[in-house]
Amino acid sequence: MQDAALRLKGLMEQLLGAPVPVRIRAWDGSEAGPPGGPVLVVRNRRALRRLLWKPGELGMARAWVSGDLTVDGDLYAVLDAVAEMVWERGEDARTLGEALRDPDVRAAVRGLVRMAGSLLPPAPPREEVRRRPHLHTKHSDRRAISHHYDVGNDFYEIVLGPSMVYSCAYWESPDGTLEDAQRDKLGLIARKLDLKPGMRLLDVGCGWGSMAIHAAREHGVSVVGVTLSQEQAAYARKRVAEEGLTDRVEIRVQDYRDVIDGPYDAISSIGMAEHVGSERYLEYARDLYALLKPGGRLLNHQIGRRPWRDESAYEIDEFIDAYVFPDGELAPIGDTVGHLESAGFEVRDVESIREHYALTLRRWVANLEADWPRAVRLTSPGRARVWRLYMAASALAFERNRIGVNQVLAVRTPGGGASGMPLRARTWR
């Protein structure tokens, strides 16, 4: 009798203490749950074993990456439905120990154990990074950056499109093109930095060279771009040469902590500070402050999270740490501003563009899905599934205000107090 889905639904509701919000299809072909919507497909019993051995987000991630757990239909709808169960519990979540004090929970776990069959733990997918202490040494940061960015430039071309910009775009309207929105973002940053011919710009975490090329081509500045990714640097240098900008743009494989050829007139740090780590952030801010000339501007474009009531209870997202950004850490915007000010900067403007990142991520997901077979060939099925889940879940997180993204404009204001800023803010708009 095909009844695995019905049994699974009942056990999950017993475990959760609430109705299962999506339809379930089990390995025996049975289905149960609300009809008419997307379906969460439990392809085999191994998916249950993954969840039993790693309850919560990491177990679900392992099942997804390995292909033991899939979705038939709208991925966003499934993620939205299960987000409160898994991704949005935050600091109010019960610990496993607290949950297991409930007799109904213990009974549900025993039922899942019986359904799972073998109790041997499945090996983690090969795409998973073994978690280590977040030391943020130069060596560990180089390894983490390589894991995320050295996936293959061809793969990133699929996801990012011709702009090759891997950070939040800036949208005139939701109906615009990704390429126009990324161009507008680079232009916005250049205006905030007040780039002019003859200036020197340091682009920290330069990616595939898009900001460096834009600044040199459109504003006549000389640019040094630094990245820890060999693949990014090779790609960026090729683009610089094709644009005829080798006399104005230098791309280095270099840690920002090793840059010693300041002062620079301006610094852009776009989607890089998330890799710095909370314990190193003040050091990061001081290093950039020291590299700027008096009056120079820093544009720090960075994802931030909502603050917790008890910050000591905050833990790094397990899925992101194990599969996407090893050692990556998000901080509340207030902490970022505080560290910049402690380093000596005068913070002049903070702009939240949270909704813009949701739009950007949905376009990246659409790009990936449209060329899925090629993306799988260029990487692996598991790696492609990682990126699809990560970007779709992140889009929803931005839409729900679980995380945001901010551009912080700061100045190394001289002792005399002349910041060089206009009397009316945001003239760059």
The gist of it:
This protein has 429 residues and is α/β, with parallel strands linked by helices. The protein is built from 17 helices and eleven strands. The strands form two sheets. The protein has a seven-stranded mixed sheet with strand order 7-6-5-8-9-11-10. Strands 2-1-3-4 form a four-stranded mixed sheet.
Keywords:
single chain, 429 residues, alpha/beta, Rossmann fold, 2 domains, seven-stranded mixed sheet, four-stranded mixed sheet, 17 helices, 15% strand
List the helices and strands and how they pair.
Elements: H1 4-16, E1 23-25, E2 31-32, E3 39-42, H2 45-53, H3 57-66, E4 69-72, H4 75-86, H5 96-99, H6 103-116, H7 138-149, H8 153-160, H9 178-193, E5 200-204, H10 210-219, E6 222-227, H11 230-242, E7 249-253, E8 264-270, H12 281-291, E9 292-305, H13 318-324, H14 333-342, E10 346-352, H15 354-370, H16 372-378, H17 381-399, E11 403-411
Parallel strand pairs: 1-3, 5-6, 5-8, 6-7, 8-9
Antiparallel strand pairs: 1-2, 3-4, 9-11, 10-11
For the biggest sheet, the summary is: 7 strands, mixed
CATH third-level topology of the largest domain: Rossmann fold
Number of domains: 2
Q: Tell me the radius of gyration.
A: 23 Å
Shape: elongated
CATH superfamily of the largest domain: Vaccinia Virus protein VP39
